[in-house]
Request: fold
Amino acid sequence: MKRLVLMFGILVGVANAETNAEIAKLIMGCNIEGNEQACKSLIDSGLIGEAYECDKRGMCFLGGSANQIIGNKDRAIPYLEKLISLNDSQRKQDFMFIAMTALGVNEKDALEFQEGAYIDLLEYYTNNQMPEKLGAYAASACMQTTNKQTLSFACGILVQLFYMAEKYHDAFYYAKKGCETNVKREEAYKADVSQGNCLVLGALYEQGKGVRQDYAKAAEYYKKGCDLGYALPCERLGVLYMLGKGVPRNRSSAKRLFGKACDFGSQEACNQYRELNQAGVQ
Reply:
């Protein structure tokens, strides 16, 4: 706590140690404990300032998180957008980065913590149906973030947007990048979004959209998605085994894959597993 108090003195130029300690208490209460009253008091104090100059105060992340915690998401977004717009050197001047590194967090992890702002932005643009902003920040996150979970989520959003728009070359590019993050289902920020990376990559090869049709490649990427724990790639790979496309026709293998997909949450795969089981397939 003494190290945090010292930093507050440097950041905000407050000479009184008692005042420093109170500010430190408010920030700990707000950002660490999620106390709404502490966040409100922090905002009312004027310490954070406005979003357009939060980089000069080193308060972009804190401004975003404090406003989110009190439920003012519309006001939080400009702070987070500003934070994301900064380069690594500038972002290292943000108070939360300084605080985390002072408490022993290494620089890479502290920067990844800041990149969590991408998740908040993408959720906000999705919920408020802002496709242009969603696409722009998803592309930024997919190309720039070093956090695998954020990257997988952002790329997955782009895959959905481009696939639905029938822009298959773009969908392929982002699906490949997202699939190669190797984020497992239990590690994904949102499994239903992340599973789309390997799933769509396999589907594009299977359907011959944006790439030459190649059932073996489709099976390869469905298998990768299945091995990462996602239901639909397992199910699609099972279908390929049923049809003998890209893999040897093998109903036993198909049944095993439908069973995995069922365990991962696909009711359709459960139905297919049951039908093969009733047909006596081992």
